[in-house]
UniProtKB/TrEMBL annotation:
Keyword Hydrolase carried by entry: yes
Gene source species: Rhodovastum atsumiense
EC category: hydrolase
Source taxonomy: Bacteria, Pseudomonadati, Pseudomonadota, Alphaproteobacteria, Acetobacterales
EC number: 3.2.2.4
Keyword Oxidoreductase: no
Known function: Catalyzes the hydrolysis of the N-glycosidic bond of AMP to form adenine and ribose 5-phosphate. Involved in regulation of AMP concentrations.
Residue ranges occupied by any Nucleoside phosphorylase domain in the UniProt entry: 274-459
Keywords: Glycosidase, Hydrolase
Protein name stated in the entry: AMP nucleosidase
GO biological process, one term: AMP salvage
Length: 488
């Protein structure tokens, strides 16, 4: 007689079980590592079966009318079984519940949790990353413990390259556990902070001066007893909290070893559930832009915005004017194989409107007055900082595109947002006009920075405040494919 299937778990029960299984697996792996380092005794094959990620399985077998929703996420494209491995379920608890709830309540899906066949690589359970402790070399550890395998880490689901196999579940999420763990470790390496502190609202910039302005603004917020913000986490782990006197706060900021990290991050956390703000100086160039967003995407942030400098391409523009990108001429080349240049990267209405409204709020200008300072148009993103030396080759393409500004990151960040289903936007400030003889000379550049950076940053922050109130519509259907996993 065939046994009846086990009863479906509720979303809360499922996440509780994921947490328990993940905690048990990582504890067993850490214990075996400690024993091997201490005594040289490797894990047995039976013990290794405990070093596995938990698997979340969701099954939808529709009966009666098919539910209809305009929501862009937490819905099925078709009946069947969907699965993914899960890491750090405690951190992702709210996200998991947000995704599972509608699948059960609206679609009547059933949930099961079990152990997967995917082993947890041993470096991912060592919080300090000191896998070579004592006299044990990493090569010895790799002989007896699961290691990160590049063959098991990929973006096939996000890039639409996964192949359906009969009897196997369809993808439930864009990223499986080993891909997430890989990126969590990379975030620590590049940003100099714990990945758990990355906030769901992200500002990306290409100049340290924006970070300096952010820190100044953050300290003012922490000194305000009515502010919703409750800590500023610095690269290297230092934390500024409310109640700290100004001199001590300044000393903490000055002592932060941000120069040790390639893309230092600062996290301003909130005491409510609306989510704080992270700012990251990604440096210059499309390679950096792709690199950091590959890793940020696994955290499923609500939005990332580019706030940085650009070159103005039109005679009517003035240094200090703003450019709100509504299209991108992608000459960065770095994503051409993943998102071919002929694929349009749409502007997201919610983000565009929020940026424009934020500019009006911060500058106090509207209508024609605002249009004189804020222009929408196409931004050209290059991989060559000295593109001007190829002006005779590039002139016609730029002219055909009707581009109004040029930079080295925005097109890449927008394409990554489109590719990895993270809402995105770009607001740039014109710092020079290379085609019109207005170049960055030291004196003029300093005056520009002092005048423009603070206002520009405030516009980005105001835009995020606006978007916080529109979270339901922000995760747009424009970012979803017709063969999409149920999870956002």
């Amino acid at each position: 007689m065939t046994e009846p299937p086990p009863p479906s778990l509720s979303p809360e029960q499922a996440v509780d079980l994921l947490e328990a299984r993940h905690a048990g697996a990582t504890a067993a792996l850490r214990a075996a590592l400690e024993r091997f380092i201490r005594t040289g005794t490797p894990p047995t094959p039976t013990e290794r079966t405990r070093f596995r990620y938990p698997e979340l399985r969701v099954t939808w077998t529709p009966t009666g009318n098919i539910p209809f929703t305009r929501r862009a996420w937490a819905k099925f494209q078709g009946p069947g079984s969907y699965g993914t491995t899960v890491t750090q379920p405690g951190f992702f608890r709210r996200y998991l519940l947000d995704q599972l709830g509608p699948l059960v309540e609206e679609f009547g899906a059933t949930i099961a949790v079990g152990d997967s066949a995917q082993e947890i690589p041993y470096p991912y359970v060592l919080e300090l990353g000191d896998e070579a402790r004592g006299e044990v070399a990493t090569g010895e550890l790799a002989r007896h413990f699961p290691t990160p395998l590049l063959s098991a880490v990929g973006d096939e689901v996000a890039d639409g390259l996964w192949a359906f196999e009969q009897g196997q579940p369809r993808p439930l999420a864009l990223f499986d556990a080993v891909r997430v763990d890989y990126s969590l470790r990379r975030l620590v390496h590049y940003t100099g902070t714990d990945w758990r502190l990355v906030q769901p609202w992200i500002l990306l910039t290409n100049y340290q001066r924006y970070v300096e302005q952010f820190v100044r603004w953050a300290l003012e917020e922490l000194a305000n007893p009515d502010s919703p913000y409750d800590s500023l986490v610095l690269p290297g782990g230092g934390v500024v909290r409310p109640g700290l006197d100004a001199a001590a706060a300044d000393a903490l900021v000055a002592a932060a070893p941000w120069t040790r990290f390639q893309m230092p991050a600062y996290h301003l956390t909130r005491r409510d559930d609306a989510g704080g703000v992270t700012i990251i100086n990604i440096g210059v160039g499309p390679s950096n832009a792709k690199n950091i967003t590959d890793h940020l995407a696994v955290l499923r942030p609500n939005c990332w915005l580019m706030v940085g400098h650009c070159g103005g391409l039109r005679q009517s523009q003035v240094i200090g004017d703003y450019v709100l990108a509504h299209a991108y001429l992608r000459r960065d080349r770095i994503l051409d194989d993943l998102v071919p240049p002929e694929v349009p990267i749409p502007a997201l209405a919610e983000v565009q409107v929020a940026l424009q409204e934020a500019a009006a709020q911060v500058t106090g200008e509207r209508g024609e007055a605002l249009k004189k300072r804020l222009r929408t148009g196409t931004v050209v993103t290059y991989d060559d900082r000295n593109w001007e030396l190829r002006w005779s080759q590039e002139r016609r393409r730029i002219n055909l595109s009707r581009a109004i500004a040029v930079d080295m990151e925005s097109g890449t960040l927008a394409a990554q947002g489109y590719r990895l289903r993270v809402p995105y936007g770009t607001l740039l400030c014109i710092s020079d006009k290379p085609l019109h003889g207005e170049i960055k000379l030291p004196g003029a550049a300093t005056a520009f920075y002092q005048r423009a950076v603070g206002e520009h940053l405030k516009i980005g922050l105001a835009a995020l405040d606006i978007l916080r109130g529109q979270i339901g519509s922000l995760h747009s259907r424009k970012l979803r494919s017709f063969d999409e996993p149920p999870f956002r």
